Amino acid sequence: MKKTQNFHLLGAVIAAGLLSFSGVLIETAMNVTFPKLIQEFGLNTSKIQWVTTIYLLVIAVIIPLSSYFNQRFSARQLFIVANLFFMAGVLINCFSPNFTLLLLGRLFQGIGTGIGLPLMFHLILTKAPLEKRGAMMGLGTLTTSIAPAIGPTYGGIIANILDWRYIYVFLFPLIIISLILGLFSLPQEVPKEKKPLAWRPVLTLSFMFVAFIWALSADILILFFSLLFIGVVSALLFVHYNRQETLIQLSILKHRRFVALLFSLLVYQALLLGLSFLIPNYLQVSGGHNSSIAGLFMFPGALIGAILAPISGKLLDQIGAKKPIITGLILASVGLVLLFVLLPTKSLFLLLGAHMIMMLGLGISYSNLMTSSLSTLKAQELSDGNALVNTTQQFIGAVATALVASILTLFQRINGFTQGTSRGTSLILVLFFILILISLSSALYGLKKKI
Predict the structure, then answer these.
(1) What domains are defined for the chain?
(2) I want to staple 147 with a disulfide (CB 3.0 to 4.6 A). Which of 25, 47, 184, 451 is the partner?
(3) How far apart are CA 251 and CA 130, in angstroms?
């Protein structure tokens, strides 16, 4: 009986892990294809970036609902819904003839990932026996950390040899395997309590996210200010309604050290997502390389980040949080400076070395920043803190992508497509360097007391 339970648990975790892996993989795989999408659909960079941004926005809205979903529905029900949404999105993108359908597919994929990603960790934390929980968490974390390393390479090679739609075609069998395995492994459970949804905070949060991101990519000044106004009003309404029907526990923001470390973590998230958009586009548009080279360029750095994530956790246990975090921030700063200095050379090997140094810094400190920020909270606040961190990470990723795309579009209009991409990239690297310096001082403040 115990062996059967273990088999079903492992199968369920692998099924949810395959879905989560596919979701994270597809998040980065499409970034490499943007120059091809610009050419095919005849749109500028700030429009094309919605391929990534709409995906991240939907996840940012869905993740705060994970607690409600887990209380209201069984794991089997959630898994099936997540898988079917993701499968529908992948199927739409296999045959997307226009940009609107491409975005619709990405929206469906975002819903699937937004439900499926928290579900995997929920299964591990609630179903796995204590003696197996560590190994299961390691398996779960591995799926989400290795996917960003593979994504750009996978997307770049396929888009170069075949067509970007095949990125989804080859992913489809993996989703089918995930669904079949989940149907066999996840047991039928009795319906859970019928808890009402806090729909007003959900709606106002959605309006706020969409308005702010849309404002960043607005071409007309009056549209920018209108969207900014809608975003601010939505934010105020969200705070008001959230007090009555709590969706995200905002009271944890009273912990200054938590906020300081969260800010540093979000700067890292902006850096990761912003550069995963920026560098492949620069290499193709200004560097003259194909999408395969652009995708392969991102692989070593992303792999370093994935490998260092568990190692950095051990460093935290052995020597504390401060040294790994500060060392990582300094290395990331050095890598950014080198990227800026070496950009005019257009040397793949020199730029690759700089990118690897930056990712070495991120790998050492990224997970430790998350652990340290949550460690400043009380035990009863950890669940709310984790929800806030996950939501803001996705939103900041969308903000970074939209902002990078808008800056590139502005420079491309002024200086031409190729030269504008090069100059825009230089400015963005400078802006990221300034953010890293602010992040360093913020981390020092957050770490001033022993965690």
Answers:
(1) 1-186 (1.20.1250.20), 246-451 (1.20.1250.20)
(2) 25
(3) 31
